[in-house]
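in:
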């Protein structure tokens, strides 16, 4: 959580640390009612904006990858989380952004 707090410490767009926690809490509630891997859902919810193109100039989800590597997550887990983040990301009025 500290890594995410630090990443968003200067954000004023509304996609800050507190937003990430609200998304995490909502995802946790929803995940309990669905058939899913709750662990993966929780990580993806927490990291969903860490490479948002409206906030960061990153490539290939480098913030999310760095945080997950620092937490010693497996390559498989990292790729599953990145896939979710990629699928839920929006760019303007377009749907899934394929350019990251």
């Amino acid at each position: 959580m500290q890594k995410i707090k630090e990443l968003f410490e200067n954000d004023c767009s509304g996609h800050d640390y507190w937003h990430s926690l609200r998304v995490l809490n909502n995802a946790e509630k929803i995940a309990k009612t669905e058939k899913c891997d709750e662990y993966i859902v929780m990580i993806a919810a927490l990291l969903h904006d860490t490479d948002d193109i409206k906030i960061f100039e990153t490539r290939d989800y480098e913030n999310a990858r760095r945080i997950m590597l620092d937490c010693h997550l497996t390559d498989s887990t990292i790729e599953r989380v990145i896939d979710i983040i990629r699928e839920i990301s929006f760019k303007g009025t377009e749907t899934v952004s394929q350019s990251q």
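note: The longest helix spans residues 17-31.
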